[in-house]
Specification:
CATH class: Alpha Beta
Strand order of the largest sheet: 4-1-3-2-5
Largest sheet: 5 strands, mixed
Number of domains: 1
Distance between the termini: 19 Å
Strand content: 25-35%
Number of strands: 5
Shape: globular
CATH topology: Alpha-Beta Plaits
Length: about 90
């Protein structure tokens, strides 16, 4: 799943919190902040666990204010682990 999250998602530990939640769910992929302040991530794993991460992304960490979560399915990449990219 490829996801773009917009709102107040920079400077609120969104990347670190997303990575922690994805790891807790046993997902693979990555997360990063885009130059325009949105968060981009890719997550791969069991459909129910990916759906749970998408639900979490709509809330984010306590200080975040999420306006939109746009998600699109991707072909699996077989990535291992969940990384924070810069």
């Amino acid at each position: 799943m490829h996801v773009i999250v917009s709102g107040r998602v920079q400077g609120v530990s969104y990347r670190a919190s997303t990575a922690a939640e994805a790891r807790r769910l046993g997902l693979s992929g990555w997360v990063r902040i885009l130059a325009d302040g949105r968060v981009e991530l890719e997550a791969e794993g069991d459909d129910a666990r990916v759906a749970a991460l998408l639900e979490w992304c709509a809330r984010g960490p306590a200080a975040a204010i999420v306006h939109q979560v746009a998600a699109a399915e991707l072909a699996p990449t077989r990535e291992r682990g969940f990384a924070i990219r810069r």
